[in-house]
Amino acid sequence: MMAAGRSRKAAQVKSELGRLLPEECLTRPVSTLSGGMKRRVAVMRALLTPSDILLMDEPFTGLDEEMKQRVIEYIKEKQEGRLLLISTHQEEDVTLLEGRLLRLFQ
């Protein structure tokens, strides 16, 4: 709720969480969730926070292929025209997000 701002109601945030987490996890403290579940909460939090740019570091780490696809669809739905920058070691993530690959070298 803190990241989503005053424009989001608790019921709306809970509904959004329910799209990426099992029902029984919606009332648990984040500290008790698995790594993959924490990652999904972080993705949702980033997408519900008012911003012009989304920056995500390895957003699909710890997710199985089915959940990864669900999270990608959620990101595409909630991106709302904002610039999305992700860091990833998986080039197929770029294709799944319908993005462009930029390589950074030292």
Could you characterize what this model shows?
It is built from four helices and two strands, in the order ααβαβα. It has helices at 10-20, 35-48, 65-78, 91-96, and strands spanning 53-57, 83-87. A two-stranded parallel ribbon has the order 1-2. β1, α3 and β2 form a beta-alpha-beta unit. The longest helix has 14 residues, at 35-48. The protein starts with 9 loop residues before the first helix and ends in a 10-residue tail after the last helix. The model has no long low-confidence stretch (mean pLDDT 89).
- Provide the structure class: mainly alpha
CATH architecture: 3-Layer(aba) Sandwich
Number of domains: 1
pLDDT below 50 for ≥5 consecutive residues: which ranges? Answer: none
Order of helices and strands: HHEHEH
Q: Supply the CATH class.
A: Alpha Beta
Largest sheet: 2 strands, parallel
Mean pLDDT: 89
Shape: globular
The tally of strands reads: 2
Helix content class: 40-55%
Strand content is 5-15%
Distance between the termini: 38 Å
Q: Taking strands numbered 1, 2, ... along the chain, how are they ordered across the largest sheet?
A: 1-2
Tally of contiguous helical segments: 4
